[in-house]
Design goal:
The protein has 320 residues and is α+β, with helices and mostly antiparallel strands. The protein has helices at residues 77-110, 123-127, 136-139, 143-147, 151-161, 192-195, 216-241, 275-278, 288-292; strands spanning 6-12, 15-20, 23-30, 33-38, 43-49, 54-60, 171-177, 183-190, 199-203, 209-213, 246-256, 263-274, 296-302, 306-308.
Amino acid sequence: MGLRFRKSIKILPGVKLNLGTKGASVSVGKRGMHYTMHTSGRKTVSVGLPGTGLSYVKTFSSGSKKTAKSKTGYRDPKENVTQQTAVEQLQQAGVASEEIARYQEYVASLTSLHQQSDPVVDWRAICDGDLTAFGYEKLKDIALSVLGGDVDAYYEAVNRMQPYEDLREFGSEFEFGTDASDFAEVQFGIMEEEVMPVIEVTTTPAGKLTQKNLPKGRYYELLLDYVCSTCIRAARDTFALLPVETVYVHAVKTSVNPATGLDEEETYVSVRFTKDWFEKVDFLRIDPSQFMSLFENHMKFGKTTGLSPVIRLQSGRDAE
């Protein structure tokens, strides 16, 4: 087996000098997009979309008929057109890559809401005068009441800290309620029309951006994960703020009753979360819809029909 020599030297950001036994070349570009010029006259455009497995490579060779600049300053017009086309293809592929990245990032945001939550409020530390405790300044005057199970203090804490504010672009009209010290209840509106994508963005083998309708099965799976992820996040923020052991979360949707023509609110997901699981789960690794199966829930889902209305779980004293 023969030995080969190759060395790459970084000249400037995005510019490399490549040395080999058969000559040298200069590469210009970033990850996924390169334009290489070799001393032999060969030019190569290489475009790839990281993470997709798609790539486009085209080589232009002057061969034995070199059309480089002559003594008269003449350059073959075809070479100019070829280089211009290569640059345009490079630019188009770059735009496609950015659009796909934005689309994938948005889809991921819908199904990963549960991965973050508000900091935990240490009510005992606040009562003890710990100035570094999260929420100290806003909550110090009601800390003793909260620890004593005062329901009115719970409402005041929610009013001051606004735990569901970060979720309002994914769920509408968050409502908090409780009539006992050991549980809380949260309801939100599913914003399907506002947040769910109805198309998916992909590329052709040549690197061109294309859009097509999101398959029904994929749409409903994404909708399920979005709703479940929002439910989990609402519960996490509630557990972080209040010293409760149980949080009921209800996802609702308003639709027109064809019999009456009136808007009616229906429950599509109702789940009873318990604090013990939330203290030992790695939320960065869970599947939101599968996590829901660990808890008592009312949820009806079909791969071709999506979520259907269900009967809401009875919470707190109503469940007794």
